[in-house]
Amino acid sequence: MSAPSLTPSKVARARHAQPPADGPPPRAGSFGRSLRRNLTAHGFLIGAVLCFAFFSWYPMVREFLLAFQKTDQGEVSWVGLDNLRTVFKDPAFWQAWRNTLLFTVLALVLGFAVPFVVALVINELRHGKGYLRLLVYLPVMLPPVAAVLLFKYLYDPGYGLLNELLGSVGLPEQQWLQDPDLSMLSVVIASTWMNMGGAALIYLAALQGIPGELYEAAELDGAGLLRKVWHVTIPQTRLILSLMLLMQIIATMQVFVEPFLLTGGAGPEGSTTTVVYLIYQYAFNFNNYGAAAALGLLLLVLLAGFSAAYVKLNRAEDE
Fold it and tell me: Taking the alpha carbons of 154, 158, 164, 167 in that order, is the dihedral positive or negative?
């Protein structure tokens, strides 16, 4: 018998009928498109990393080096721990830390509790929530300098609105920014009003995420408002509350704008001198960049240690 003849059309059909050995062949141009897409993504990523490195990492490394250096007429020399000794011997050092801790405590009493209470009140209302959210957040949208100057006008001993209100009800007028006993409290009140809007909205978002069934169960058990807040609201928002507590402590320990604009930085008898303002004085008033960097390094180590201890304690509680 003669072998069957294979025509060109049969050969072509046989080739197309055979399945590929290693899967479908790659489409033309897919590798090029993938490469271009990845290069674009990495290009944007590299740009962001470079910006972050230049504006965040480099200043921190530079501060660490300056803390152990001294600049004299343009010549840089290593001095070891001399800058730290200079800072510790300064009487204003301990006063600045006391004032900073006092500001932090007062800011936690007012700035941590007031936004949470405001969020609770707004969450309980049935109407006007959007308007109240805007009203609460409005101070955050103001430039900090404008907000501080507004409070400086309110605190003015001659024509300030607060003294006018006190006089209208027969109370004695106060030297809000000139009295060493009131100056720090006045700064805390201004700072709380300026910054509580963002925290209040975060708390409000957390409150709106609590299931309503928990409150209904608490009401069936006869729980009142305070017991519902203590046994339902606070446990359900513990993570947000703890995170905001950490962020507020870190922010208040670095306060500068409010005392600088309200009381000139130091305040009466140095009552509003903070650590960051003392850093500013070392750098720009005394031209001692080494001491300024050393004090900044101490503040960095303190906040980093507090943050690490806080994270460790939270992790231990979760476990």
Answer: positive
The CA distance from 244 to 250, in Å, is 10
Tell me the DSSP string of 26-95. PPTTHHHHHHHHHHHHHHHHHHHHHHHIIIIIHHHHHHHHHTTEEEETTEEEE-TTHHHHHHHH-HHHHH
Kindly indicate the confidence band of residue 130, based on its pLDDT and cuts at 50, 70 and 90.
Answer: confident
Phi and psi at residue 171, in whole multiples of 5°?
-95, 150
Q: CB of 279 within 8 A of CB of 138?
A: no
Quick check: 85 pLDDT over 80? yes
Q: Are 262 and 283 in contact (CB under 8 A)?
A: no
Which class for 229: exposed (0-12), middle (13-18), buried (19 or more C-beta within 10 A)? middle
pTM of the model: 0.78
Tokens of 236: 């359900």
Structure tokens given for 235: 């446990």
Report CA dihedral (96, 158, 153, 263) to the nearest 10 degrees: -10
**111 half-sphere exposure, CB direction, 13 A CA radius:** 28
What is the rounded radius of gyration, in angstroms, for the C-alpha atoms of the chain? 31
Give the residue-averaged pLDDT of 105-121.
87
Distance from C-alpha of 110 to C-alpha of 190, rounded to nearest angstrom:
11
Residue 278 has pLDDT above 90, yes or no: yes
Sequence-ordered list of residues with C-beta below 8 angstroms from that of 233, at least 6 positions apart, any chain: 120, 207, 210
Whether residue 276 contacts residue 256, with contact meaning beta carbons closer than 8 Å, is answered with yes
Q: Mean pLDDT, to the nearest integer, of 33-58?
A: 81
CA distance 160 to 59: 41
For 142, the token pair is 């103001």
The most distant pair of C-alpha atoms in the chain lies apart, rounded to whole Å, by: 128
CA 22 to chain centre: 54
